[in-house]
Amino acid sequence: MPHIAVVTGIPGVGKTTVLNELTDLAHQNKFDLVVLNYGTIMNEIMRDLGKELHRDDMRSQRLEMQRKVQELAANELNNRATQHNVLVIDTHMFVRTPSGMWAGIPQNLLQQLRPQLFVLVETDAQQIANRRQSDSARRRDQSLSSEITFDLEWSRATAAASAVITGAPVKIIRNEPGNQKQAAKDLFQTIQSIAA
Ligand code: AP5
Question: Tens digit of pLDDT for each residue in 160-176?
Fold first, then answer.
């Protein structure tokens, strides 16, 4: 059985940066691990369905359409998981849509994917605001520090609910300024513990 770890973080926290470091670490240690980005797979599926969108515009689409694509992406992830010892899914505990806060992996998909670990990548709210502001390559929602704090708390609450549904543990990894390599090391150790 492949091991699945779901790694999440609110936009701008630097989860993709940490996951790039994790891929390097796994490679150096000859550890069979692949990282797949949920949003990228959804974006490819939308394109195949005739909707060519910037990844930052997907969350504002009709919820029913997003839901359908989210399910198709989970099938795709399940298929690809069989090819590796560990599949790391780069995603979000929740997505801000015009209809409200929507679970990144709702109950039916949790039961399908059966992850063995949830990770929350976190740092201070002000750091996240700064990273969003300086990241000109993306069309990120700009938020007040108080809104970012709310999102960090909502992520924790959703992770707790997911942990109850699946029985999988939740690990919080800090991505402190300039310390993305350390965050990746902590993450690698945690992943090794579930794949042992
Ligand atoms: P996704 O691709 O996950 O977008 P995102 O949230 O914007 O995530 P990123 O990976 O781009 O940002 P990040 O926080 O990882 O930051 P980064 O490493 O770039 O998702 C796109 C879309 O897909 C979603 O909006 C949604 O519509 C959809 N989607 C995804 N999953 C879904 C699901 N399950 N269901 C439904 N829809 C879903 O870093 C940011 C900046 O910080 C960079 O400039 C970086 O250099 C800097 N930085 C990082 N770490 C550090 C550090 N330690 N010190 C200093 N600077 C740092």
Answer: 999 999 999 999 999 99
Q: With contact defined as beta carbons under 8 Å apart, do 3 and 9 qualify?
A: no
Tell me how far the alpha carbon of residue 37 lies from the centroid of ligand 1, in angstroms: 10
63's tokens: 């919820």
- Can you give the CATH number for the domain in which 100 is found? 3.40.50.300
Q: What is the pLDDT of residues 66-100, one digit of tens each?
A: 999 999 999 999 998 888 899 999 999 999 999 99
CA distance 66 to 166: 23
Domain that holds residue 172: 3-195
pTM for the complete prediction?
0.95
Q: Does residue 103 sit in helix, strand or coil? A: strand
Domain count, the chain: 1
Q: Is the CB of 135 under 6 A from ligand 1?
A: yes
Distance CA 130, CA 128 (A): 5
